Amino acid sequence: MIELNRRTFLKGAGASGATCALASLLPGSLAALENKQLKGMGKDIASICEMCSTRCPISARVIEGKNVFITGNKAAKSFGGKVCARGGAGHSLLYDPQRIVQPLKRVGERGEGKWAEISWDEAYQLIAENLNKIKKEHGPEAVAFSSKSGSQEKHLFHLATAFGSPNTFTHASTCPGGYEIAAKAIFGTKVKRDLSNSKYIINFGHNLYEGINMSETRGMMAAQMDKGAKLVVFEPRFSVVADKADEWYAIRPGTDVAVALALCHVLIEDNLYDKAFVARYVEGFDAFAAEVKAYTP
Ligand code: SF4
After folding, report:
1. Residue 101 Cα, ligand 1 centroid: separation in angstroms?
2. Candidates 3.40.50.300, 3.40.50.970, 3.40.50.2030, 3.40.228.10; correct CATH number of 190-292?
3. pLDDT tens, position by position, 26-66
4. Which ligand 1 atom is at minimum distance from the Cα of 214?
């Protein structure tokens, strides 16, 4: 049985003899604990992490209807039964006192920060009136519908279709969409990054170690820690992934492509590339080599 409140949690966290129950709770659990004591046995409920678009399977410990701890679902082998730090702190978002759980209507000037809570009925009424006004004055295409990608997006996009707008987008439109289109153009198909078997990883600002995409993060960790892979990071910010790199280059923001082309320039000029691979798999290499001639380091 776990009996905790904010006061005992803080006391316990500072004491050297903290119990296992205390040690297993993350600081974010504080948000879930009210002044009254939590009593009773916890239940572990299988669920999905919604903290990013990877949606890792999780196991959420619930005591008296409150989620106090999140860990990976051990049955989800391909995710390693683990969550990242962001996923483990999911309950902090759930119980954050500043979380918006009611529709808000701006009542001051734009930027003034003045809002009033309204009912869901009033919110839907307002949205419908404004959507129909825009449709009448500018046509349905004037409205773009944007959703977090995932299981809910289809509901919003069905509404977009019914409304008459083809303009829909999600996180996937810019993030995975970008590399999927690039991969199709270059390789003719999708690419899967095999980080766990890589010996040398060149990373342009893909900050896996700050909490996203568990399977790739674990793969990169395993490659670095168990197999001695070398990690080189090009990024303006000294991020967590930069901190874990063998080499970090603080390039100026927006110069990633120039750096990549300069790398290609050196590989070709200094004859460091795999000629057999290029001969077998690459089309248009001579034109590419001529193009990158100008991109000196
Ligand atoms: S990568 Fe982290 S934040 Fe994203 S779904 Fe998995 S556990 Fe949640």
Report:
1. 22
2. 3.40.228.10
3. 444 555 566 666 676 789 999 999 888 788 899 999 988 88
4. 1
Residue 103 main-chain phi, psi, to 5 deg: -60, 140
CA-wise closest residue to 227 among 191, 263, 200, 256: 200
- Atom number, ligand 1, closest to the C-alpha of residue 54: 5
Please tell me the distance between residue 256's alpha carbon and the centre of ligand 1 in angstroms: 26
* 132 token code pair: 């129909």
Q: Whose CA is nearest to atom 5 of ligand 1?
A: 55
- Measured over the CA atoms of residue 27, residue 32, residue 33 and residue 38, the dihedral's sign is negative
CB 84 within 8 A of CB 105: no
The SS3 of residue 99 is coil
One-letter amino acid identity for 210? E
Grouping H, G, I as helix, E, B as strand and the rest as coil, residue 289 is: helix
Could you read off the pLDDT of 210-220 as tens digits, one per residue?
866 777 888 89
